[in-house]
Give the backbone structure.
Amino acid sequence: MSVLSEELREKIRAEFPKYPNKRAVTLPALHLVHDTLRAVSREAIVEIAELLELHPAEVHDTMTFYNFFKDETNPLGRHRVWFCRSISCMLRGGEELLETVCHKYRVHPGETTPDGRMTVEFAECLGACEGAPCILVDDVCHMNVNPASASALIDKL
Amino acid sequence: MATFEPALFARINKPDSALLKTYQADGGYSRLKEFLSMAPGDVTNIVKDSGLRGRGGAGFPTGLKWTFLPKDHPGPIYLAINADESEPGTFNNRYLMELDPHQLIEGIILACHAIRSQKAYLYLRYEYGTSYRVLDAAIRECRAAGILGNNILGTGVCCDIVLHRGAGAYICGEETGLIESLEGKRAWPRIKPPFPAIEGLFRKPTIVNNVETLCCVTQILYRGTEWFKSIGVPPDPNNPRDPGSYGPKLYCVSGHVNRPCCVELPLGVTARELIEEHAGGVWKGRRAKAVVPGGISMGFLSASELDTRLDFAGPGRVGCLGLGTAAVVVVDDQTSMVDVLYNCCRFMSHESCGQCTPCREGTAWMTKILERIRTGQGRTEDLDLLMEVAGSMGIIPGTTICGLSDGAAWPVKNAISKFRSEFEDYIRSRKASVTSAQQLMAVH
């Protein structure tokens, strides 16, 4: 029984024509698998490697370089919320915002709430410094966030 | 000085500014056919004559970079667009991509024509989800209108753009790190030479240009080199190696100001003008203690250096690393420089790729020393130790492959040399300023 569905495999194969070799599809494939399965497991790594004609260690090497991808021991919740902690946000309360949310939802940065709704992360500069502090909900940015508006966003997830 | 009219930002406040019809109504793509009928070398010469310097941070002359490609190469030649905007405080590329993607796309097509490339890879940081969707829609519009693809507007020129999303790593903004990442590997910068123009993406000749640089290319082709050179700062006549700082620049202002903003101005505006006239002044009626001139890796201006011109040469005259991304971050007089420097070091330590020992270890130890100082356990010798570590890492002392390390060292060098007494007072007072929020992140 394979981990990657035929649909997911088709999506990965659809990336091939964009690049002169299959190895370049490593990041797109990891994103597709990670988005769908909420983690990239060891089995998934082996199957991605087969599709891309790589050794599993090569896929694993790339995957673990980027702190972005979760493995099966710590899968993502249904949503991922990033709190910027870099300079412009730090100067305007970004770190305290993260702390407040972590306390309220009883979760540490990098972990998922027990109901599986949300994984909380700290982020380095999200590139929305004119709206500091800012957060990213999945990949949508929200600016000038305070504890109340962050909670309102999270409660709607 | 005549009133400055924004060029890069001319359309961003129009309704539907991201749509093809809005761009075309404004004259966009109207002369693309004419430009694509020119010889590639002529397009390169126009960009070379304009004096355009790369907007991504290093300020290398763009036209000159294009001429480094091997002549008569059979191809393929690639254009890689650096849209991994990750320098803390920087967000101008996001404005360009979200609000006027066609200006960028036209610049990409023109650059591809100049360098004889038929394929451009746009490396976009993952965090810019909105930019991704806007660019994806704009590229589709162009393909449908015959502006991208085979035989663009009947000229016989071919060009297509692939959007490639990153995965949250600052080092992918380094051009060879970006290339390695695009190839599906860990983003470890390459030893140069060979430079990417000779052997880059997929081992083929490659030009890596920043988003704002390519938008400038569009403007230069339409408005001419004379227009571009009428803006900004001409070369220093006493310095034969200074290529000048021509053209408009998108300045980002954030931190402790009343109205953080991204504003287009002629290169050479001072930090004080940006803060007072464009960002509404320092917040809460306070004064600026320190100002980051171009992203944290460029170091700090002190309060007495705010009249520094933010052109390519200005920040270097007061000990900063350079203009960088022209991202200005203002720190008010109620904020501890120890805390600000800790934030910078923690960022660089988190983002060092780990390939070169001086950078991997240097960034980590500088962060640890600052952590110790911030728990009240610092010693005044720590400041000399920080300076010693900072002085031993980077391309400038010759110990690392890429410039991330110089950028990690610079805020340390500037903060300690310009604010030394504050650091000494902090250490002697034995005060502690580690917050519970930071402890929460340190657990991880």
Notes: Residues 40 and 71 of chain A are 5 Å apart (CA to CA). The radius of gyration of chain A is 17 Å. The mean pLDDT of chain A is 97. The beta strands of chain A are 79-84, 118-123, 135-137, 140-142.
